[in-house]
Amino acid sequence: MNYGIISLRTVVILLSTLFTVDAYAHSEHDKVVEQEAPRSDEPSMRGAYGGPFILQDQNGKTVSDDDYRGKFMLLTFGYTSCGDVCPTILQSMAKVMDLLGDQSKEVQPLFISLDPKRDTPPKLREYVTAFHPRLVGLTGPDPYVAAAARKYRIKYQVVEGKNGDYSIDHTAVIFLMGPDGAFQERFAHTVTPEEMARRIARRIADTPKPEPEKAPEKIQ
């Protein structure tokens, strides 16, 4: 009988698994909460993400999703104290805007902060404009931020650190919403700016432009 050998082998496997999980959990200051990206051309996915929100922009003005109607919204969630993930995403979004050329006029890039306690409008303004002059930062009271995050299925959690400091684990993705506010694409944070720009450019080209309003006829 090999009960002793089996027990030792089991213990080694369990310890190895625990050390692997622990090493992964502490490998990054800001963990990325990954979710599988759905195919955006599936009808059941068209309304899977997004919805109305009311927040405050980097200039202290109250805004809603309606303020961006008529443009594509290129939108992500994060916070200014984020380690590598958020800056990488925002750099990609900035590169996308440059790659789109004239089509970039049809796109409004947005960064919604999950850390309203520290990310005040002035701090957001300084942060986002360092990446791209068209990038707008949004924040607001916790309940309003949480409501927006729920609509986009963003998972986030505050992780307490030392001396009162903290980080935030959060889903790291980029959304493309259409001019009507409907969900169009969900990009993983690892997608290259070139691929993202190519897919966005196709969406813009395939979207019918609204006809200009006709002047009312004069009464004879």
What does this 3D model show about the protein?
By secondary structure, the protein is α/β, with parallel strands linked by helices. It has one domain: Glutaredoxin (3-Layer(aba) Sandwich), CATH 3.40.30.10. Helix content is 33%, strand content 22%. A 7-stranded mixed β-sheet has the order 3-2-6-5-4-9-10. A 3-stranded mixed β-sheet has the order 1-8-7, with no helix packed on it. α2 links the parallel β4 and β5.
Mean of residue pLDDT values: 81
**Count the helices. How many?**
5
CATH class, please? Alpha Beta
CATH topology: Glutaredoxin
What structural class do helix, strand and pairing data support?
Answer: alpha/beta
CATH architecture: 3-Layer(aba) Sandwich
Shape: globular
The tally of structural domains comes to 1
In which range does the helix fraction lie?
25-40%
CATH 4th-level superfamily: Glutaredoxin
Low-confidence stretches: 1-46
Q: Let me know the number of strands.
A: 10
What is the N-to-C order of secondary-structure elements (H for helix, E for strand)? Answer: HEEEEHEHEHEEEEH
Largest sheet: spatial strand order: 3-2-6-5-4-9-10
Instruction: Tell me the major beta sheet.
Output: 7 strands, mixed
Distance between the termini: 107 Å
Question: How big a fraction of the residues is strand?
Answer: 15-25%
Radius of gyration: 22 Å
